[in-house]
Amino acid sequence: MNDIPQELDGIARDLHHVAIVVRSLEEARPAWEALGLACAAPEFVEDQDVNVIVCSIAGQRVELVEPASDASPVSKFLEKRGPGLHHLAFEVPDCAAAIQAARERGLELIDEAPRPGSHGTTIAFLHPRATGGVLCELVEDPKSAAK
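^ thats the sequence. predicted structure below, dont judge the formating
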């Protein structure tokens, strides 16, 4: 079975992570650890004005995302929708090529060019209108390429 949305078939190679917006990393972390996920130290992602904790279990990643300021786009999301699912992130071998392929397939982009993500990744977002109302991120992860 192909778990990749039809719109991304051939662009994405795997699910990279699920991102959850939280009001406070400090308050959210214990519940995820109680479920058995190993959670790393927080990282500030300047480009997105967020703090992120990567939690993992059995090779799967959940990223907890906290706005670092009221000016963060995630802060606006949190105010409008509350805590919960923010986006699905799909691993791509080359973020710039994935953006080009998405553009050629008529998918609406938020990012026209790759930008820095957390933990040394390169990312770009597709508009939720392109994927049935779900915000999707394209992630080029140098750690995955090394495997």
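The chain is about 20% helix and 35% strand.
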